[in-house]
Amino acid sequence: MPHDHHYDPLPDTELRVRALESILVEKDLVDPAAIDLLVETYETKIGPRNGAKVVAKAWTDPEYKKRLMENASAAIAELGFSGVQGEDMVVVENTEGVHNVVVCTLCSCYPWPTLGLPPVWYKAAPYRSRVVRDPRSVLLEFGTELPASTEIHVWDSNAELRYLVLPQRPSGTDGMSVEQLEELVSRDSMIGVKLADMPA
Amino acid sequence: MNSIHDLGGMEGFGPINPEENEATFHYEWEKPIFGWFFSLFAGGIINVDVFRHAIERLGNQHYLESSYYEHWLGAFETLLVEGGTITTEEIDAKMAELAGETQ
């Protein structure tokens, strides 16, 4: 178990989960093997590397980018990423004058097929409450300082609609392969709290 | 519903503290709760709307004191009991039984 938890469970949570699990299995409502497989899938296969593939392709294939901006769900599905919590996707593009950042103020809506499960900070009160009121201070906490002239657009996700930020392609990356470009695309850059990484 | 879950614009929650190289799950008990979402969805016991509504009924103090998957746990428990699938007595009895085993 990691020791740097940002939160501790309530005193009876673990016992309550074991009790409920035992009852649900007895009633044949859940299959523990199926759950193990789901957990493993989300731990190892469904994560921000998927979104990075979408971004790198959009950077290198203008026709794909056009399709992505017009119908994000379909263009993302072309790469094999679709399903639960990503049915209706919208991609918002960062430009010289506009930076986009995504939140879910009501809960934690997040595009699972492209980014995986959300990090704790995305689900917690400090980010959700403040990014809509003072996005610049939030971005600074992630080490992202934007020019004062850059407009910041904050997108509030909901149960039906999920956003993915298309970061700007960093300068000095002209000769790089799609695979090399993918490495520059972090989860945080697709939420919009950071920029894409600069090449080493 | 306008209640505590509607956090946008509120003040005073402090720094964001992002965790480096964060694991997908932080505790083992989070994993079954995550899995139930799919099982109960497929079984027709929950849908997105009743799940959401159940989370919004958790109560302000519980909502702020508990974590993401504990919100899910509370919502599932509410919906399983309200739907007549299980009773609170069953849960309490099983918790007592399991607590006895570990002592």
Describe this structure in words.
- The complex is a heterodimer of chains A (about 200) and B (about 100).
- Chain A contains 11 helices and 4 strands; from the N terminus they run H-H-H-H-H-E-E-H-H-H-H-E-E-H-H.
- Chain A has about 200 residues and is α/β, with parallel strands linked by helices.
- Chain A folds into 2 domains: about 15-45, no CATH class; about 45-190, Nitrile hydratase alpha /Thiocyanate hydrolase gamma (Nitrile Hydratase, Chain A), CATH 3.90.330.
- The relative contact order of chain A is 0.16.
- With about 100 residues, chain B is mostly helical.
- Chain B has a single domain, classed as Orthogonal Bundle (Cyclin A, domain 1), CATH 1.10.472.
- Chain B has helices spanning about 30-40, 50-55, 60-65, 70-80, 90-100.
- Chain B starts with about 30 loop residues before the first helix and ends with a helix.
- The model of chain B has no long low-confidence stretch (mean pLDDT about 90).
- Classes of the chains: A alpha/beta (about 200), B mainly alpha (about 100).
- At the A-B interface, helix 1, helix 2, helix 7 and helix 8 of A face helix 1, helix 2, helix 4 and helix 5 of B.
Task: Set out the fold topology.
The complex is a heterodimer of chains A (200) and B (103).
Chain A: H1 13-26, H2 32-44, H3 48-60, H4 62-70, H5 72-78, E1 89-93, E2 98-103, H6 112-115, H7 120-123, H8 125-130, H9 135-141, E3 151-156, E4 162-166, H10 178-182, H11 187-191
Helix pairs in contact in A: 3-4, 4-5
Chain B: H1 30-42, H2 48-56, H3 60-65, H4 68-82, H5 88-102
